[in-house]
Amino acid sequence: xxxxxxxxxxxxxxxxxxxxxxxxxxxxxxxxxxxxxxxxxxxxxxxxxxxxxxxxxxxxxxxxxxxxxxxxxxxxxxxxxxxxxxxxxxxxxxxxxxxxxxxxxxxxxxxxxxxxxxxxxxxxxxxxxxxxxxxxxxxxxxxxxxxxxxxxxxxxxxxxxxxx
Length: 164
Hints:
Helix content: 55-70%
Largest sheet: 2 strands, antiparallel
């Protein structure tokens, strides 16, 4: 690399400039929830029109993994809890658009949730595993309070009594 000096300017290196990766995408927690909702809704809508229910389920699991990978670390808390909620919202909206009446829409929502339950568990579990791998740690303040409450109660003579 050669450097050139011009009077009144700092020395600059000639050659390729250092840029950040242009393909790098990061999502906020809200952006990830919207992207997951859009994927669920479009997958369920296409599945309702074509009859390919497996398409919506597989798209949901893939979207869960991708959204969790591309979300900032600060937004992972919201992403971990949103997969079942976004699937429910997408199912309600897709059934509202494609169903003939309110009863068939309600029945369609329940059938969709029932048949997609294993996929919902898989997508949610995948989201939690990826988030834990990326450094997300749940706040366990509730468990700390529970531990203190249990520590204050000790068995005395075969029964539990509370310390004061």
